[in-house]
Amino acid sequence: MDRQHTDNYYFSRDELFAYEEKGYLVREKIFSRREIDELLISIDGAIESLRDAVSSGVTYFLDGKRFVDIGTTTLQFEHSYESEDIRVVEPVSGLSANLDNLMESPRIVDPIKSILGTEIISIWTNKMNLKVEKSGSGFDWHQDSPYWIHDHPDAGSLPNVFLSFDDTNKQNGCLRVIESSHTSGCLPGRDDGTQLGGFFTNWEAIKSGAEISIEIPLGSLVFFDPHLIHGSEPNTSSYPRRALIMTYQAGNYPMLKTGEIRQISGLGVCDAK
Ligand SMILES: O=C(O)CCC(=O)C(=O)O
Fold it and tell me: What pLDDT shows up at residue 269?
């Protein structure tokens, strides 16, 4: 998508209509390889610092999966026994100036303003998903809204943006969605006796015929509704599949976990052309 000569990145009417109908919208190649490479250097630095702090963090297990809280940042480790591979870091706000600038980029926040119908927005949460080569685990079918209903008065008003740091395909576990599933609102979870089962969407609500695998080039964005059923398969390829998911809300509300208000000015330096 060549938007170099436009002043903004707001959704067109057709794009907004498609987003509302399907629950997601893809914009390909919005960030260049050079920008992604620079961001990855910052992310690697932030992750190394977190790794150094793991021994001073608070470790706990849910369904046998290892989590470590370092201050208000939670690390999730890969599921295989005693794996030291970090799978998820949440939130990533405040870990790197480059990432914080990215989250203010008009390329990301203009469409969010279109979705929310307001110019005044703030960050709800954000996470880095690092699917390591060959063994990075998948994300079972879920909606994001059930995770947030106890912390936000309107969990249906928290749009997500998925930024891909690698070309994604079925082999490396690209994002997949159940098209239009967001129209049903918050769906029941699984009553399977596990600690986390309630967060995964009940199998009966999943219409597998509407499944779309979103295979996209590096630097692409997927905007998606918090009620949309989504997930991904494990990474069986020889390369990592890394992605950042940023979630926004209307302005002047505190972030999940940290409680701080991160208002968006929309002037991120990543947009210098
Ligand atoms: O990174 C992925 O493939 C999907 C992640 C996801 O669904 C989530 O973090 O909520």
Answer: 45
